[in-house]
């Protein structure tokens, strides 16, 4: 009898251990997914009408995707406002301006007019969409964004542009290539993990350093231009890619930049960001280059450095856009 | 009546819970690294 009880108790303990393990395992995963560190909490807000209002889906062009949202601060009595454009991520093929609502809300809470802009994504329905066409849509949208804000009582006289991943690439292009044509001065750019150059030797993440033909095919699709393997390393290549490579548009007048990249990035090449940093240094451009040594494309393993990135964004906004 | 939670069993339970927490965290990080890139160790644990 005693032996039977002992055996039953052992079984129950084994089941208790299995349950405890599963609860701890799942709890740990949920905690990691939902935890926001104290230093990051200051970069988000609980959105309410006390902070501002959102007006959605203004059109700026003919294409279905040519829409933008405006996040307008509650205080509408200022003589002028700074505009911050934030462009969404998604590998040029997916994503939406709504994905960045938290960032746009936070920027609005800082007193800026914030704008999220959609652009035509590459898809079966839009096979001709590429980085160049998307960057031109962004360029086309800015006068409409500024005009719409003005009609709503917010006079924009300066702006910053920003984004993540594909949005970071487009933000850099607007900042470095198109700022001179902007209706208002572009004062700074901040972005994370946006590709800025297209050299096969950097794109080791897709093995393009080993296969120049594959590199030519991929860069042709991305740029919307005809690239052949024999063009790599020539002046002609740089001239052809200048329209889609922020790196190739850097000069001594390039605007202040805050940028963040992960050394293990699988989706865009970290080595491209090293080139970008070197070019900015060479041209004496004020910039912050924050490298996440344990992270990839999501900058996901270096929370303390993400807080540093956001702190630098605030410093630059306070310095150049206030 | 013997005590169900002996000192030995409590120690085993504590070890199992710690193992669950650590493995859950590592598994999530491994999945993130697989999709986005990243190192398994170093950086921030939380």
Q: What is the average of the pLDDT values of chain B?
A: 91
Low-confidence stretches of chain B: none
Question: Pairing-aware structural class of the strands and helices of chain A?
Answer: alpha/beta
**Domains of chain A (count):** 2
Average residue-wise pLDDT of chain A: 96
Q: Looking across the biggest beta sheet of chain A, what order are the strands in?
A: 1-2-4-3-5-6-7-8
The shape of chain B is rod-shaped
Describe the structure.
Chain A has 322 residues and is α/β, with parallel strands linked by helices. Chain A has two domains: 38-196 and 252-320, Rossmann fold (3-Layer(aba) Sandwich); 198-244, no CATH class. Helices cover 40% and strands 17% of the residues of chain A. Chain A is built from nine helices and eight strands. An eight-stranded mixed β-sheet of chain A has the order 1-2-4-3-5-6-7-8, with helices on both faces. In chain A, helix 4 (131-151) packs across helix 5 (166-178). Chain A starts with a helix and ends with a helix. With 46 residues, chain B is mainly alpha-helical. Chain B has a domain at 8-34. Helices cover 65% and strands 0% of the residues of chain B. Chain B has one helix and no strands. The longest helix of chain B has 30 residues, at 7-36. At the A-B interface, helix 1 of A face helix 1 of B.
Provide the fold topology.
The complex is a heterodimer of chains A (322) and B (46).
Chain A: H1 2-34, H2 38-41, E1 52-59, E2 67-73, E3 81-87, H3 101-109, E4 113-117, H4 131-151, E5 156-164, H5 166-178, E6 186-192, H6 212-223, H7 235-241, E7 257-262, H8 270-282, E8 287-292, H9 303-320
Parallel strand pairs in A: 3-4, 3-5, 5-6, 6-7, 7-8
Antiparallel strand pairs in A: 1-2, 2-4
Helix pairs in contact in A: 4-5
Chain B: H1 7-36
